[in-house]
Amino acid sequence: MSQFQLEENPENINPEHVIDLYHLIGGDRPNLSTETIRQAFVNSSYMATVALPDGELIGWIRSLSDDVSTTWIPEMVVHPEYAQLGVDSMLLDAVLTHHSNTTVYFQTLHTDFTARANFYESKGIQPMPSFIVCAKKV
User: Fold this and answer.
1) According to the per-residue pLDDT averaged within each range, which of 86-95, 100-109, 110-119, 128-137 is highest?
2) Which range marks the domain in which residue 114 is found?
3) Which residues pair with residue 75 across a beta bridge?
4) Phi (first) and psi of residue 72, to 5 degrees
C-alpha cells in the first residue's frame, strides 16, 4: 500500500491548501482566491490530487480536454519534498490513462523539462521544437 492517496475528480478540495502549496513552490499566481481555485478545479475536464494518509494535500494535476483529439495539462503541482518520491509520476500517469485516446500537451517550464527530461520522456512526453506557447496573463 502506498503512503500516498490518489483521488480522481475529488468532490471537495480545500482552496486554502491549494494556495499554501502554490506559495510554497513560488507559483506566480497573484490573483488567487478561494473562489477562483474552486471554479478552476470544477471547470477542469479531469483532475487528480495526492494526499498523505492524514489528508495533507501534496499535489494535484488538472487537464482540459475535448475528449476527442486534444488534452491540455495546464498545471501539475507537487510539494517539492515529494516530487522525487513518485507523486509526480502518479499524477501524470492518472491523466495520461484518463485521456489515453487524445494527444496530450503538457505545459512546463523549460528549466524543469531540461532538468527532468528523462522523467518526461519515460512518460512519452517530448518537446516540440516548432511549438510556441504564448500567453496573456490576467
Assistant:
1) 86-95
2) 5-122
3) 62
4) -125, 130
Q: Which of 72, 68, 70, 51 is CA-nearest to residue 60?
A: 51
The CATH number of the domain holding residue 38 is: 3.40.630.30
Contacts of 39 (CB under 8 A, 6+ apart): none
Considering the domain boundaries, does residue 138 fall inside one? no
pTM confidence score: 0.85
Q: Cβ distance 103 to 70 under 8 Å?
A: yes
- The DSSP-derived string for the chain is --SSEEEES-S---HHHHHHHHHHHT---TT--HHHHHHHHHTSSEEEEEE-TT--EEEEEEEEE-SSSEEEEEEEEE-TTTGGGTHHHHHHHHHHHHTTTSEEEE---HHHHHHTHHHHHHTT----TT--------
Question: Which tens digits make up the pLDDT trace of 67-76?
Answer: 999 999 988 9
C-alpha 26, offset from chain centre: 15
Question: Which residue is it, cell 491548501?
Answer: 17
